[in-house]
């Protein structure tokens, strides 16, 4: 029995190219970021790693996103979407005049009043879970969806 080396090398080449294509697809679909800072505590810990789905640029309220602002990437929670009006008063966030239920927070954060802000088309309003000392839409304004890198799927 003779070995057809052309077929063997063709199979090896196909396996290598398939593996390379899968790796490329994986990294085009998923992103990995290291949490830097305490702005999302208690949900995300400083130094932890998060995984996001890069293709999702239409997050829903309550989801955590990664977005770029200037030369930095931020990880924040979406609290309002386009068309919503968001306001913070007396340490409570209101979306469309209804108090926001934030079960993900262990303690109610204290923060300065803000708004009301109507979220423009093609944008979201984000807040940190730890609102005492953090940059979010209260400072940066609503986040345009083009700046969203993805929605967290594992943290």
TrEMBL record:
One Pfam annotation reads Peptidase_S26
Q: Which residues form the Peptidase S26 domain?
A: 10-151
What's an example of a GO molecular-function annotation for this chain?
serine-type endopeptidase activity
Reactions catalysed according to its record: Cleavage of hydrophobic, N-terminal signal or leader sequences from secreted and periplasmic proteins
Q: How does it sit in the membrane?
A: Single-pass type II membrane protein
* Compartments reported by the entry: Cell membrane; Membrane
InterPro entries tied to this protein: LexA/Signal_pep-like_sf, Pept_S26A_signal_pept_1, Peptidase_S26
Instruction: Supply the name of the protein.
Output: Signal peptidase I
Which organism does this record belong to? Marinithermofilum abyssi
């Amino acid at each position: 029995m003779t070995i057809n080396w052309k077929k063997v090398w063709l199979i090896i080449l196909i396996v290598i190219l398939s593996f390379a294509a899968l790796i490329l697809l994986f990294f085009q679909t998923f992103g990995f970021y290291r949490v830097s800072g305490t702005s999302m505590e208690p949900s995300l810990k400083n130094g932890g790693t998060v995984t996001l789905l890069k293709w999702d640029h239409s997050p829903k309220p309550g989801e955590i996103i990664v977005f770029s602002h200037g030369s930095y990437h931020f990880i924040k929670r979406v609290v309002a979407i386009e068309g919503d009006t968001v306001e913070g008063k007396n340490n409570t966030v209101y979306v469309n005049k209804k108090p926001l239920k934030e079960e993900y927070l262990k303690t109610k954060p204290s923060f300065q009043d803000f708004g009301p802000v109507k979220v423009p088309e093609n944008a979201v309003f984000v807040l940190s879970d730890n609102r005492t000392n953090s940059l979010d839409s209260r400072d940066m304004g609503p986040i345009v969806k083009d700046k969203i890198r993805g929605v967290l799927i594992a943290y």
